[in-house]
Amino acid sequence: MDEFFARNRLSAYIDGELSDTEMAEVARAIEEQPELREAYLELKAAVDLLRQHGPVQAPAGFHSSVMRRVEGLSGGRSWFGRLLGPLGRYPVQGLGVAVVAAAVMLLVFRGPMLSDPGLDNIQLPPMSDADREAAVPGPTKGEGAERGQASDPEPAEEQQASAKEESGSASTAPSPSTTSKTGTAPATTSKSTGGSKSRLSEEGVVPIQELLRNQEGTYIPNWDKESAPTAVIETTTDAGKGIESGAGDLATSPFTYRLTPTEPDALRRLVALAEKLGGGAFTTAGEPHEPYILTVEKNYEKVVLQIPASRLESVEPYLRSMGGLVTVHADQDRLYRADAVNVTVEVQYQP
Amino acid sequence: MLALLLAVLTQLSDTELVARFKGGDEHAFSHIVRRYQDRVFGMCLRWLGERAMAEEVAQDVFVALYRSLARFRGESSLSTWIYRVAVNHCKNKRLYSRRRRRDRHEPLEGKPRDDGPARELPAGGRGTAEGVERSEAQVLVHQALEAISEEHRQVIVLRDIQDLDYHEIAKILDLPRGTVKSRLHRARTELARVLRNRIGKEDVKL
Fold first, then answer.
1. What would you report as the CA-atom Rg of chain B, rounded to the nearest whole angstrom?
2. What is the pLDDT of residue A183?
3. Which CATH architecture fits B148-206?
4. Structure confidence at residue A227 (pLDDT)
């Protein structure tokens, strides 16, 4: 057997995972070829070391610690079961409690992203003019300008001027929560809804609520309604995995979106979003994602956002605010079964 | 009476234990913990490298298991499922730790951990020649695993330390069996290289 061929089978040979014929061939090659034998012995020694000294025992008291934590879960009933527990014993009082609780929940969560205190403070990273220049070459920039997209670099004075012109149009896109949130970001709200030219504040920072508040209804901020791509939602369920999969596996994110942002700093926005929600952004290899400015040439990236499950519902509306969005895969079944959920976003920059 | 119950539970298969738990028998879960605690803790320790973190994550795995065991449909074996949950917890913990380090502007690679491998010394073995030898080997294992890539560490931990077969590893990591096979080969080769560099070629050939 060829040495290269045999060398690549040494690991499987150690495990006995080859066919009888291959086992015999590799064994013969090991006997005949000293270098191969050396490689085999080295590999075998490493495996033996791990098998002998790798396994460990759980520390003393581990079992009782687990059982104590489990006992704290009220005998195994879910939080929902515990919440509804009083209903069984005290039907009238319990019903009253449930109604009041439902009313409170309705008030609090009527607009989940809008009332989310964590999101209210999100500041998206600024994008420098240089980045904008680098992202979009001349002709494309012109097109962007015609469409009023943020990829159009313009002096700060022009931004402010255009913002003033466009501030009047904010009233044409009413949103129940707009007025309630205006006070939280006075510097930018007057510029928020007219178009992307006015998207950046003087500091080049956009509060996330400016974008999110526009998600109610059909209004899409920073897009001309006519030119905004239609979002096609295709929801599928990865039924084969279900609860057994848990969540957090980068290779099997329960949610996958295809995003076509118009702004070159989309990656930075995604990273900022994930971090502000208490999660992180990673490459598909599991490394922390280092955002860069998208260009016409380098216009595709896949980002895995790891989001606390409780904040997941804020993600999709925000993605929609960034551009066209297609839900490639959404496994709602796995949504609430882990502390953190991975959301894969395929970014296809379309200036 | 309790001893009798424990003896009965010991004889039960995973499937039977799950069925008993679903039927309201809390002792069944206790026994599942006993059955898998070494494996889960061991995997977390070898994956994460830090004892305290591994214990915390391993406990989290069992708590997560407890919360969701009633919905376990048995499409895979309990063992596979527990490993999957453990793998995901370890991955999440690792990513979270990495992000925290990045936020603190600490280098991710090339920096020894705060609580290095010395803390892994087996308490029971200290003070004896055998214990010292065992400790050194365990420290070596720890250092070698720390030195290889996470992707490689995953398969090595599952195969060589947890002694799972290729098929089960494939299911746990959601990879094709062939990928497991080739990745394991690369992982072991990398590990052997690390060991060779660390302790010298002759010493590895025990």
1. 19
2. 34
3. Orthogonal Bundle (1.10)
4. 33
Pick from A236, A239, A253: nearest CA to A341: A253
Per-residue model confidence as pLDDT tens digits over B174-197: 899 999 999 999 999 999 999 888
Backbone angles phi, psi at A72, to 5 degrees: -70, -5
Of B85, B91, B137, the CB nearest to A49: B137
Q: Looking up tokens 């008030």, which residue turns up?
A: A107
Question: Which helix (H) or strand (E) segment is A344 a member of?
Answer: strand A340-348
Residue extent(s) of CATH 1.10.1740.10 domains in chain B: 1-115
Can you give the pLDDT at residue B196? 87
Contact predicate A175/A216, CB 8 Å = yes
Q: Where in chain B is the domain with CATH 1.10.10.10?
A: 148-206
How many Cα atoms sit within 13 Å of A52 on the Cβ side? 15
Look up residue B21 and give its two tokens: 């738990």
- Residue A277 has a CB neighbour count (10 Å cut-off) of 23
**Which H/E stretch holds residue B42?**
helix B26-48
Partnered with residue A118 across adjacent β-strands are none
**With an 8 Å Cβ cutoff, are A53 and B96 in contact?**
no
Instruction: Inspect the interface and report whether the beta carbons of B161 and A250 lie closer than 8 Å.
Output: no
Task: Look at B95 and A48 and tell me if their CB atoms are within 8 Å.
Answer: no
Q: Residues 225-244, chain A: which have Cβ within 8 Å of B?
A: 240-244
Whole-number CA gyration radius for chain A: 28
Interchain proximity A11–B181, CB inside 8 Å: yes
Give the CATH number of domain B1-115; options: 1.10.1740.10, 3.40.50.1000, 1.20.190.20, 2.60.40.10.
1.10.1740.10
Query: What is the predicted pLDDT for the residue at A23?
Result: 93
- Examine the predicted complex and report whether its ipTM is higher than 0.85: no
Buried (b) or exposed (e) across B168-183, using 16+ Cβ within 10 A? bbbbbbebeeeebbeb
Domains of chain A: which residue ranges?
A: 3-53, 62-109, 117-215
Q: Looking at residue A74, what is its pLDDT?
A: 53
Regions in chain A scoring below 70 on pLDDT: 1, 74-98, 106-253, 330-339
User: In the block, which residue shows the tokens 């330390």?
Assistant: B161
Residue A242's pLDDT is what? 32
pLDDT confidence of residue A123 = 47
H-helix segments, chain A = 3-7, 10-15, 20-32, 34-53, 62-71, 79-89, 91-109, 117-120, 129-135, 138-147, 156-167, 178-182, 186-189, 208-212, 242-245, 266-276, 315-322
Select the residue of B41, B102, B144 nearest A58 (Cβ to Cβ). B41
| Sequence-separated (6 or more) residues with CB below 8 Å from residue A291 | A265, A267, A268, A270, A271, A281
How many CB atoms within 10 Å of residue B108? Answer: 11
Give the model confidence (pLDDT) of A118-137 as tens digits.
Answer: 444 444 445 555 555 554 44
